[in-house]
Amino acid sequence: MTNITRRTAGVRALLLGASALLVALSAPASAEKIENPVAVFSGLDKITGRIIAFDVYIGETVQFGALQVTPRQCNTRPQTETPQTTAFVEVDEITLDNEVRRIFTGWMFAASPGLHAVEHAVYDVWLTDCKQASTVAPPENYSGPPISEEAAAGDDPLAGTAPKLGAGEVIPRLKPEP
Asked: Which of 14, 88, 112, 160 places its Cα 20 to 30 Å from the Cα of 37?
């Protein structure tokens, strides 16, 4: 190994070490997370080509076509930090034999819907946001994170609007699990 090769290798190692140190120093020690009571999903019906947005409270199960969507946790970060919206979700499919079959359990990331969406033969579901309140009333016996009073009164600009549905179309709400 020549002196130039050794120097080049040494400079590379020094640069790699310095860049790793810069990344470590610039990253927050522990990113603060905000637990939200409402997860916002979008769903695609591949037969009709329609996409609808729907709000689901933590622990509530909502049926979208043949899928039952249940968010267990929905987190965001403060506006002063890098955006990261995540939700832990369970999705079940109701088969033609009326059996319920779990097809997805895991984390969804709003920033990467293509990576962690539920892709079903007829329906797709993905996370779009988490928020503090919804225009949809919470289910009976709701026990998730606290709902923002300001947002519930419609004062929260992040609360959004009710899903746009067609005439006579309703997102059915299911009883929360005990």
From this structure: 112
Structure tokens at 137: 């009333």
- For residues 81 and 141, state if they share a domain: yes
Q: Specify whether 64 is located in the same domain as 12.
A: no
Same domain, 58 and 40: yes
All residue ranges of the chain with pLDDT < 70 are 1-31, 149-178
The secondary structure of residue 58, as a DSSP letter, is T
User: For residues 89 and 71, is the Cβ–Cβ distance under 8 A?
Assistant: yes
Where would I find the beta strands (DSSP E) of 24-164? 34-35, 38-45, 50-57, 61-64, 67-76, 86-94, 100-109, 118-119, 123-131
pLDDT tens-digit series, residues 46-92: 999 999 999 999 999 999 999 999 999 999 998 888 889 999 999 99
Q: Which of 110, 50, 100 is nearest to 77 (CA)?
A: 110
- The boundaries of the domain holding residue 45 are 34-174
Distances (CA, A) of 114 to 13, 64, 101, 177: 36, 19, 22, 29
Give the count of alpha carbons within 13 A of 22, CB side only. 6
Task: Please check whether residues 22 and 80 belong to one and the same domain.
Answer: no
Q: Is 33 exposed, middle or buried (0-12, 13-18, 19+ CB in 10 A)?
A: middle
Q: Is the CB of residue 118 less than 8 Å from the CB of residue 105?
A: no
